[in-house]
Structure formats: structure tokens, C-alpha cells
């Protein structure tokens, strides 16, 4: 299990370094290093991402760097979307979920290459509320279906649509991710029962604990490094990983 714990540490460090995107590593780590079935890995990923994100949001909450109105308009509809995405997973194969997951990784890589810091503080605060709600639902469905937090989409959306500064958008995103992840995880307990599968609770808790420690270390390391260089390097890694997943499942 040594490689699994190193993978958990990598997930946490990635989250700490990048602020978003690190959770997309959780599913591949659980499948290829722990040998978990696809649907179990996706379910466990939601639980792990939810716990790490909630822990990461606490310092932002203490410093009052969470925009609770955005949590209301984006996060709560996202919970409904995540529940629906997890429901859809009951009717498709794990292979199809992984192929969709690979596509999401490529989208994430594109988002990583884009430097959305340049639009920080834009004047998009009057973006129609119904569009924010629909965006939240859409990202939520993706979260429930493939088991990723979606921070690489949520942070740019909050900056573009709400005009939030990056420091506020990241903390808000962590709260939204935790809400959506726990919603999807709850539904997946029912999905796994349908397939006569179950959660490895000890793995989930240990993985989460190591991930939290890794995120703290990553945050300190990230303060000393170029964020743009890190994001672009991680984007290249995501493309390589997506290609590997497609190769293994086609």
C-alpha cells in the first residue's frame, strides 16, 4: 500500500500547490495503485475530496474569505446536480465513466493552461443568477458522474460570473466542492449497493488524512514557486494521464 499512500500525498500536495485540479488525481490513484473497482474508486474519491476540501476551507472561513452568496447560488444547485450525476452512474459501465473522466481531464488541462488571473476583479458581478444556477447544476452533474471536485471549473466561473478576486474564489470553491462531493458520495452508497459493492472506509479515512497533510505541505511549497509554471506543468501531466486512461479502456 506504500504507493497508494504516496499517491494520497501527491493528491494533497497538488491541491495545496494549485488550489484546484489536484482532486482529479484521486480516481486514477485509487484504480491503478489500490486496484479498486471503477465505481468504488469514484465513490471513494467523492468522500476523500469532500473531506480534504472541507478541511482546506476552514482557514478561509476563519479569515472571512468565503463568499456565501455564491455558495448559495452555485453550491446548493450543484449538490442537486451531483446527486443526479451519481444517479446516472447506476445505468452506465465503469469503462464509460472512465472515458468521460479522461475527457474531463483534457478539459481541466485546457483550463490550467489559461491564465484566468488576468480577469480578476472583472465587472461580471451582474451575471444573471439563473445562469449561475445552471452552471452549478452542470458542474455538479459532472462531479457526481466521474468523481472529481470540479475546482478547475468552479474557480474561473466564480471569477468570471461573480467578479470575485482569486483569494475569495478559491475559498468559496472549496466550500462548494465539499458540499457537492458529500451529496454525490451519499447517493453513491445506494449505487454501490445495487452492484453489490462497498466502500473501504479505512482506506478512505487514511487517504483523506494523508491528503490533508499533503495539502498543508503543498500550500507552503506553492508560496515559493511560480503558480503559472505549476499549472502548465500539471496540465501536461493531465493530458498524459488522460491518454493512458483512454488507452487502458478502449
Sequence stretches where pLDDT stays below 50 over 5 or more residues: 118-124
Shape: globular
Query: In what range is the share of β-strand residues?
Result: under 5%
- Total DSSP E strands: 0
Description:
With 250 residues, the protein is mostly helical. The protein has helices spanning 2-18, 26-32, 38-62, 68-88, 94-113, 129-146, 151-162, 166-194, 201-222, 227-249. Helix 7 packs across helix 8 (166-194).
Main traits of this protein?
0% strand; single chain; 250 residues; mainly alpha
Which helices and strands occur, and which strands form pairs?
Layout (H helix, E strand, L loop, with lengths): L1 H17 L7 H7 L5 H25 L5 H21 L5 H20 L15 H18 L4 H12 L3 H29 L6 H22 L4 H23 L1
Helix pairs in contact: 1-9, 2-3, 3-8, 3-9, 4-6, 4-8, 5-10, 6-7, 6-8, 7-8
At a glance:
By secondary structure, the protein is mainly alpha-helical. The protein contains ten helices and no strands. It has helices at 2-18, 26-32, 38-62, 68-88, 94-113, 129-146, 151-162, 166-194, 201-222, 227-249.
Amino acid at each position: 500500500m506504500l504507493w497508494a499512500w504516496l499517491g494520497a500525498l501527491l493528491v494533497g500536495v497538488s491541491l495545496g500547490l494549485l488550489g484546484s485540479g489536484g482532486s482529479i488525481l484521486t480516481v486514477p490513484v485509487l484504480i491503478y495503485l489500490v486496484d479498486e473497482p471503477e465505481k468504488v474508486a469514484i465513490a471513494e474519491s467523492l468522500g476523500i475530496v469532500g473531506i480534504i476540501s472541507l478541511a482546506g476551507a476552514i482557514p478561509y472561513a476563519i479569515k472571512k474569505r468565503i463568499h456565501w452568496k455564491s455558495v448559495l447560488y452555485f453550491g446548493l444547485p450543484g449538490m442537486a446536480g451531483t446527486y443526479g450525476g451519481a444517479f446516472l452512474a447506476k445505468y452506465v459501465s465503469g469503462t464509460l465513466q472512465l472515458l468521460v473522466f479522461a475527457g474531463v481531464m483534457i478539459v481541466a488541462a485546457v483550463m490550467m493552461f489559461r491564465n484566468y488571473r488576468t480577469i480578476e476583479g472583472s465587472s461580471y458581478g451582474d451575471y444573471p443568477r439563473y445562469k449561475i444556477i445552471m452552471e452549478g447544476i452542470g458542474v455538479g452533474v459532472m462531479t457526481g458522474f466521474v468523481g472529481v471536485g470540479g475546482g478547475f471549473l468552479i474557480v474561473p466561473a466564480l471569477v468570471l460570473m461573480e467578479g470575485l478576486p482569486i483569494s475569495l474564489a478559491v475559498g468559496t470553491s472549496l466550500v462548494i466542492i465539499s458540499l457537492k462531493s458529500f451529496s454525490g458520495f451519499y447517493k453513491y452508497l445506494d449505487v454501490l449497493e445495487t452492484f453489490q459493492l462497498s466502500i473501504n472506509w479505512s482506506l478512505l479515512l487514511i487517504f483523506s488524512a494523508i491528503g490533508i497533510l499533503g495539502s498543508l505541505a503543498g500550500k507552503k511549497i506553492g508560496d515559493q514557486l511560480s503558480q503559472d509554471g505549476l499549472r502548465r506543468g500539471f496540465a501536461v501531466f493531465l493530458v498524459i494521464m488522460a491518454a493512458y486512461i483512454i488507452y487502458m479502456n478502449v
